[in-house]
Every structure is written in C-alpha cells, then in structure tokens.
Specification:
Elements lengths: L1 H24 L13 E5 L4 H12 L3 E6 L2 H15 L4 E5 L5 H14 L5 E4 L17 H24 L6 E6 L22 H22 L5 E7 L13 H14 L3 H4 L1 H8 L10 E3 L2 E3 L8 H14 L4 H9 L1
Parallel strand pairs: 1-2, 1-4, 2-3, 4-5, 5-6, 6-7
Antiparallel strand pairs: 7-8
Helix pairs in contact: 2-3, 4-5, 5-6, 5-11, 6-10
Length: 328
C-alpha cells in the first residue's frame, strides 16, 4: 500500500515539476505586426490550434478564411472568431482534405473569389484514427495530413506568388509534430493501411510535411514565397478524441495542463507567419518560435526528391503542371 502511495505521489510531483518547467519555457510570438489588407487561409481553423491562429490573425485585421469539412463546426468557429475580435471579415469554406476533388474545388473557389492570398497555414490533421483507403486510393491519415495539403499548396502557388513581394513574401506554414521523429518513409508503402500502425502513419505524414517544405523551398528559391514547418509541441487538443471519450478527455486535460494549451501551441505557427526574420528563411523547421532541427531524415535530398515525384503521381499532377504554377 505504501509503495503504491509512494509511486502516486512521486508521479504527481514529477508531473507538476515538468508542467512548471514547460509553462515557463513555452515561447510566445512577440510580433506586433498588423495584417490589414492581407488574406489568410487556415485549414482546420475552426477548432484547436487552428482556431487560435484564426482569432489572432483576425484580431490583427486580416481577412480570415477558415476551412474544415464540417458545416456546424465551421459556422460555430466563424462566429467565435467574429465574437472575440469584432472582425467580421471572416469566411468559412468547406474543405475535405481526404478527397482530391474537394481540394481542387476549394482551390478553384479561392482563385475565383479572392484577389490575394498572403498566408496559408496547413494546420488540419487527424490523429490515431482507424486508417482506411480513400476513394483516391490513399491512406486516409496520409491524405488528410499530407497529400491534401501538398495538392492545395501547389494549386494556390500562383495566387500567393502574385500577392507577395521579395521584401514581404507570402508565407506557407506546415504544421508538423514531434512525432515526425518516429516517421519512416518506405515510399512504396506510403499508403499501405496494413503495413503500418495508425500512430506510425501519423508520424510518417508529419515527416512528409517537413520533406515537402524542404523540397518546395528549393523550387521557389529567389521568389516572393517562403515555406517553413513548425512543431507546436505537445498540445492538449481534441485530436486526442480519437482515442475514445474518456481517454481522449484525460489526454487533452493532461497535455493542456502539463505541456501546452491550444493557444500556447499556436504560437510558433503565428511567429513563423508574422516575424520579419522568419520571413527571410525557407525550408526550415521551427520549434518554440525559433529555428530548430528536425530529425536527420528530414534533410535527405534524395528522399525529398523521390517523395515529391511520388506525391505528384498520387495527386494526379506532373512536373509540367508545377512549372506552370511557378511561372504564373
């Protein structure tokens, strides 16, 4: 009995100490930059970190477009942003990253209805869910977390190029995860749902986002667009709900109180989207509002080039299409 009590007390003390350390070392974006006249898109901008990013950008005067696949959540998210900021220039648009058709329709709608696009936050994602093959022939987790954003980014490149300037480039921010460290890229099994565990697929998708940013940064070098990746840290969001109602609620509570709240987790993405020096680099990996280092595999030139080629095939594009996007 004493041994059990000792373990419980020790665990609580360690958790409190870790929590105090984390809360005192979580970096916050210090940029005071306004975004009046700018247009931003945040995928998954209606809940969790995405919603906090959207509120911040709206509070700075931006035209904010939030995208998610759920009407009720989208309508409610837009209302929250307007209520918190008083900025009514907020738009909700449907986007289902698990279907290429939805991504193409969303991008076409943006190009048709918007005059500019200054910031794209590729934030949406799913966690440790039961994986399956989508109608497009891809792993659901991989398509939502990576392939959907890959296609969306390429389709919107011409608009972002037209909106940016060398002195003030348009910015693309990919949301990765500390779990990219467990990512493994067997290119031939990228979309296998029987070969990997869901958690492994999640890690794979987050590694892909870093490799994508690294490869695209080379192709847009010298242009008025930059792309970088962020690791928000361990954040208590509803992404844990995939573990079940009670386990998910516990994990969300634990991570919010010991590590980061969604607002704290959003800070690095906000920093990379706004900070002047962050706009001077591309293809980098940020953590706690500063340039950091991803795992070694994230800088493998051959791997990023092969992933790029395979990704184009999966989203039904070719290098000629990309050249057209870059030239427009």
């Amino acid at each position: 009995m004493f041994a059990v009590l000792y373990i419980i007390v020790t665990t609580v003390v360690v958790a409190v100490m870790v929590g105090l350390y984390q809360k005192n070392t979580n970096a916050m974006c210090k940029s005071k930059r306004r975004l009046d006249g700018k247009t931003v898109i945040i995928t998954g901008g209606t809940s969790g970190m995405g919603l906090r990013i959207a509120v911040d950008f709206a509070d700075r005067g931006a035209r904010v477009i939030v995208a998610c696949p759920f009407v009720d959540e989208g309508v409610e998210g837009r209302k929250i942003i307007i209520d918190k900021t008083g900025n009514e220039n907020v738009v909700f648009k449907l986007l289902d990253l698990s279907t290429l058709d939805s991504v193409r329709k969303f991008a076409a709608d943006i190009i048709r209805t918007e005059s500019r696009l200054d910031i794209l936050i590729n934030n949406a994602g799913v966690g440790n869910v039961d994986d399956c093959i989508t109608a497009d022939g891809m792993s659901f987790i991989m398509q939502v977390n990576y392939f959907g954003h890959f296609l969306l980014t390429l389709l919107l490149l011409p608009m972002m190029k037209n909106s940016g300037r060398l002195s003030d480039p348009s910015r693309i921010v990919n949301t990765s995860s500390v779990l990219h460290t467990i990512g493994k890229l067997d290119i031939d099994k990228l979309n296998s749902v029987d070969y990997w565990y869901p958690t492994q697929v999640y890690g794979n998708s987050k590694l892909c986002l870093i490799l994508f940013a690294h490869e695209l940064s080379k192709k847009i070098k010298g242009s008025n667009i930059v792309i970088n990746t962020v690791d928000p840290g361990a954040v208590g969001t509803t992404i844990f709900n995939c573990a079940g109602k009670f386990v998910g609620a516990f994990c969300t509570f634990f991570f919010r109180n010991i590590f980061k709240t969604p607002w704290e987790g959003a800070q690095t993405a906000i920093h990379v989207a706004l900070d002047k020096k962050a706009g001077e680099v591309s293809g980098q990996y940020f953590k706690n509002c500063k340039v950091s280092r991803a795992r070694r595999a994230a800088y493998n030139e051959k791997l990023s080039a092969r992933l790029w080629d395979e990704s184009l095939k999966f989203v039904k594009l070719n290098n000629e299409d990309v050249d057209q996007f870059l030239m427009n």
